[in-house]
Amino acid sequence: MGLLDGKVALVTGGGGGIGRGIARKFVREGASVMVAEYNDDYCATIRQELVEELGGQAEVLKADVRVKEQIQGAVEATVERFGGIDILINNAFTLSPKVLLEHKTDEMLDATLHSGLWAGWWAMQAARPHMIARGGGSIVNFYSIDVETGAWLNSDYSITKSALRGLTRSAAHEWGRFNIRVNLLSPAAMGTVFQKMAADSPGFAERVAAMKPLQRNGDPEEDIAPVAVFLASDMARFVTGELINVDGGLHMPGYQSRPGNVAEMEQQGG
C-alpha cells in the first residue's frame, strides 16, 4: 500500500529537477500522475521513466503554464484521463536573466509572474471545483529562501515567490471550508538550475553544501519529494497554510548572494 494509493496528481514542470523527483516519488507511492511539461526532451524521458521504468499510471502533456488556456487544459486533461484530481503541485517556473534590479525590465517581471503567480492562480482556480467533487484536495506551491535573503539578481523571482506565499495563505484560509489544504514548500536541492550552476562553476556544489547545517545538497527525489508526499497524503490532513523549509537547514544561516563584479554589471546596463 502506497501513501498516495487512489490519488490523482497534476505536477507542473514535472519533467526535470524537483518536479521530476516529485512525479517519480508520487508514482512510487501509488498516485496516478499527469505531468505538464514544456520541454520536449523532458516530456519523452519522464514518460519513459514513469510508465516503462516504474510501471506507474502516468501521462505527460506538453503545456506552457504561462498560457492560461494551456494550464487550464492540463487540469481538464488530468480529470478526463484519471477521473478527477486530488493533488496539484505548482512547480513549473521560468527564470529571467540574472541582472541587477535596475536592469530588470517590465517584460522580465511579466514573464516571471506569468510562469509562477499567474500559472499557480489559474491552476488552483481550475482544480478547485474538481477537488470539491472529490471531497477535498491538497495544493502545494513553492517558496524560496531568496525572498528571505533578498537575493541579488533575482528581484522578479522574489516578487513572484512573495506573492505566491500570500496566495497560499489566502487560499488555505478560504478553501479550508472545502477541505482543500494549501501549503508551501521552500526547497534547496540539486534541481535543474543547480545542475547548470554546478557545471558552469567548478566547486559550486561543494561551497553550497558547506553552507547548510546538514553539510550536503538535497536530492530532488529522496529529500524534497518525500515532504511533498507528506503534504499530499492523509498524514497531513490537518496541515494547511504552512511553509516548510526543505533545505538542509540553509534557512537558518542564510547565504550571501552579492556578486563580486557589481561594478562591472552596473556598466553593462540592461
UniProtKB/TrEMBL annotation:
Q: A single GO molecular function, which one?
A: D-xylose 1-dehydrogenase (NAD+) activity
| InterPro entries referenced in this protein's UniProt entry, alphabetically | NAD(P)-bd_dom_sf, Sc_DH/Rdtase_CS, SDR_fam
- Stated EC number for the protein is 1.1.1.175
Taxonomic superkingdom: Bacteria
Pfam families for the chain:
adh_short_C2
Keywords from UniProt, A to Z, are: Oxidoreductase
- What protein family does this chain belong to? Belongs to the short-chain dehydrogenases/reductases (SDR) family.
What is the recorded name of this protein? D-xylose 1-dehydrogenase
